[in-house]
Amino acid sequence: xxxxxxxxxxxxxxxxxxxxxxxxxxxxxxxxxxxxxxxxxxxxxxxxxxxxxxxxxxxxxxxxxxxxxxxxxxxxxxxxxxxxxxxxxxxxxxxxxxxxxxxxxxxxxxxxxxxxxxxxxxxxxxxxxxxxxxxxxxxxxxxxxxxxxxxxxxxxxxxxxxxxxxxxxxxxxxxxxxxxxxxxxxxxxxxxxxxxxxxxxxxxxxxxxxxxxxxxxxxxxxxxxxxxxxxxxxxxxxxxxxxxxxxxxxxxxxxxxxxxxxxxxxxxxxxxxxxxxxxxxxxxxxxxxxxxxxxxxxxxxxxxxxxxxxxxxxxxxxxxxxxxxxxxxxxxxxxxxxxxxxxxxxxxxxxxxxxxxxxxxxxxxxxxxxxxxxxxxxxxxxxxxxxxxxxxxxxxxxxxxxxxxxxxxxxxxxxxxxxxxxxxxxxxxxxxxxxxxxxxxxxxxxxxxxxxxxxxxxxxxxxxxxxxxxxxxxxxxxxxxxxxxxxxxxxxxxxxxxxxxxxxxxxxxxxxxxxxxxxxxxxxxxxxxxxxxxxxxxxxxxxxxxxxxxxxxxxxxxxxxxxxxxxxxxxxxxxxxxxxxxxxxxxxxxxxxxxxxxxxxxxxxxxxxxxxxxxxxxxxxxxxxxxxxxxxxxxxxxxxxxxxxxxxxxxxxxxxxxxxxxxxxxxxxxxxxxxxxxxxxxxxxxxxxxxxxxxxxxxxxxxxxxxxxxxxxxxxxxxxxxxxxxxxxxxxxxxxxxxxxxxxxxxxxxxxxxxxxxxxxxxxxxxxxxxxxxxxxxxxxxxxxxxxxxx
Length: 791
What we know:
Layout: H1 9-21, E1 57-59, E2 81-82, E3 84-90, E4 93-102, E5 121-122, E6 128-131, E7 134-139, E8 144-150, E9 154-161, E10 164-172, E11 182-192, E12 195-203, H2 205-210, E13 216-224, E14 230-235, E15 238-240, E16 245-247, E17 252-259, E18 263-272, H3 276-287, H4 292-307, E19 310-313, H5 317-332, E20 343-345, E21 351-353, H6 378-385, H7 387-404, E22 411-412, E23 415-416, H8 425-434, H9 442-454, H10 468-474, E24 485-486, E25 489-490, H11 501-521, H12 525-534, H13 538-541, E26 542-543, E27 548-549, H14 576-579, H15 587-594, H16 596-611, H17 651-664, H18 684-694, E28 696-697, E29 708-711, E30 718-722, E31 728-734, E32 742-748, E33 751-753, E34 757-759, H19 760-763, E35 767-774
Parallel strand pairs: 31-35
Antiparallel strand pairs: 1-3, 2-5, 3-4, 4-10, 6-7, 7-8, 8-9, 9-18, 10-17, 11-12, 11-16, 12-13, 13-18, 14-15, 14-17, 19-30, 20-21, 22-23, 24-25, 26-27, 28-29, 29-34, 30-31, 32-33, 32-35
Helix pairs in contact: 1-4, 5-18, 6-7, 7-8, 8-9, 8-11, 9-11, 11-12, 15-16
Keywords: Calcium, Signal
GO molecular function, one term: carbohydrate binding
Cofactor: Ca(2+)
């Protein structure tokens, strides 16, 4: 089967690539190896394009699976053997591993501590190259150089073999990978001498928990540059020579060759979540005659273009590495699940067809981890310079709402994989609406947002917020201690109460505020009145005696045995010390409730104490290392807290602490990347660094009727931002340095700024925002008029 490239397409790709390559490359500042100890399954996938379906990467431990469903797995910098190169890397999605070998055939990957027990190979990181869009490594045990790159939906492999009469390419399809859970079915077959096709069906842990009737299917269609001398098959039951197909768990094929020295064998693999036919169509559409080198050039040109939408300048090379690596992870984290023809995976292995429901190009359907915390990083970055991806997120969720009647906070091929049992999709959509991103059916969007906040009848477990009835009835979620473990179910939530009652109350209050503002904008007065009242739910759980958010029982009394440092009891992935500051919708109200002096002293001492442990769990390598801490930047609930000083009359402390977090929590090492015990949920922590380094943030995630942008401490002397509306914003920070973190004054387009904030619509007009920085706080600048707290 000869794949021909349509006339005119290849020259366009290459011209684009040449044009981008001539620009000053920012790719040198992206280091995918940062943070690769205890990193999540998506994290280390260099051979991909922004938001690609094809995310190719080496795996050191992927076949071990993931017992808890979310833990670090895939590639770990502390491990020194590679077991294969895997194509799919998404939240709860992983599969299709290839591995080149020589010598005696083995069809099991083997154990990390016994590399010779399987086909895995040792490697030396000095012989490894990882760049945006490209990966290369020497497999020491075989003398094979493996290279990877990708288009959106096609993975490319190039294996350079030594001279060997026993060379193999192992196509290991039917085994679990990363977060994918157990394989329930698999199939692979040679279509002809140089084409292979197949699929794998999996049942991930979070699908099993949140959407038990669901499943995740992955399909592929591959082209091989050289006909194998022979083909063998294997399954969990064993191997069979001279057989070109295999089915069931453990299914795979072995392509056998005799290779000359430095002989290259290339594979192009079209991917899909809907069918083999669509995997083939994706390959034909994106890579008919595209060579490996052409694909690499185009992939890196795409990264150059997308990363360069925010160009930063300054003498500190380390900060540029943090910045562009963070932006890389933000643009890598969530991948498309739709095919070139608009097909997308529906619940239970069905296929749907996307339809455009608003102005602009037809949206893509994306797989996505929960948006929990994403309004303090990812959505703000999208709204700034990548609005098409904010639109894709909204359209994806609205498609799921059409199909299933409810949003899903986390999605794997339309299956609900919430993970946190809450649901902030409505808030994120309300933020998109207020930010002017409206390429969708706005009336349908509001209907869905309202339902997410207020509806509870027949609500499926996987849509989260199972305690909405209780919240709307009491104005807060009652605490039930026995729900820590109820009939083997940990941290139970139902229509009457929850173990995570306080974090839910605070979160639902915030999302009710966001929905209220959208209701107000659409003239839904009755809805607004109901929702804005619910947004005050935080007041019901604030104990006036200790000035802390304390779990409250259904009878209105506060729960006893209260330890504000105790994690989990009443709080999802946090404690009362952290969550007491979780009132982003009304910071002035919280300041007044605590008293301004007490608020500022407590908040400042919180950061003073947490600085001693790197603003998290110290050097403990674990995602929950900081969960008992007074502040935990390695997880979502704390990410807005350092910006609250802008509301309490001390903006210089926001400048001080946000800069210090950027300097000390974020690193440039494989182990110290996003802290030590990071939980980088598909680009959130990287996004936070990017927007904070620019000196821009909104604690309300643009959910106000007229959103604002708070001003912080810009790190770079000059940042040039291509805004999503195609205008340009230049941010200059005169005299900025590691010591000069304090704003002495600012102006926008020549007009002095007296406040530490401005309206977002003013900022999005573009022009020049200039800060003058110094080494001592200017305690008069930005204090006269605090940011509007509630609209």
